[in-house]
Amino acid sequence: MFLRLSTSKRLRREWSRFALYMAIGAFTLPPLATPVGAQGSLDRFTGAWIGAQNWKTDTPSPYAREGQNVSVLIGNVGNELGGTMTPFLGFAEGVRFTDVRISGNQLRATGVIRPPQSPPNPDEWKDSVLATFVFTIDKGELVGTANLTMGNVPWLRLEYRLRRP
């Protein structure tokens, strides 16, 4: 059920791409809305997480796989907090967390399906997708939801249950 290590060329290529996006994203993420002085709250959420993405909608995509394995990296660099999730909706580039905030015991973020430093393209359908994430820590697991809109129209709901590797 959880992500397994493999020596396949495709998986190594995807992990390399993911590492590159994280390295680039570390320098291009938006400022943190919550002061870094709340270090205890930040430490609970930062780091690597693995687990499953489940579709919670009446009409899932025909390509939807229940329990799709995902990896999440949430990082704090200076006064910035951000992260990525791969894969996302089956796309290897995943989703990049932007506008990350910690409010009480919740981490809230919006996400875009586009590599860092890629300008929005109005002709690309993925650029009209906005994901709103809400995560909490429950018994050592990162549990949350993502509500997706396309344009301003509600589209999909996803649920997550992640653990540290």
Keywords, please?
single chain; 165 residues; mainly beta; eight-stranded antiparallel β-barrel; 2 helices; globular
What do you see in this structure?
This protein is 15% helix and 44% strand. With 165 residues, it is mainly beta. It has an eight-stranded antiparallel β-barrel with strand order 1-2-3-4-5-6-7-8. β6 (129-138) and β7 (141-150) form a beta hairpin. The longest helix is centred in the N-terminal third of the chain and has 17 residues, at 9-25.
Provide the gyration radius in Å: 15 Å
Number of strands: 8
The shape, in one word, is globular
Biggest sheet, strands in spatial order? 1-2-3-4-5-6-7-8
Write the H/E string, N to C: HHEEEEEEEE
Q: Which range does the strand content fall in?
A: 35-45%
Specify the helix fraction band.
10-25%
> pLDDT under 50 segments (min length 5)?
1-7, 26-38
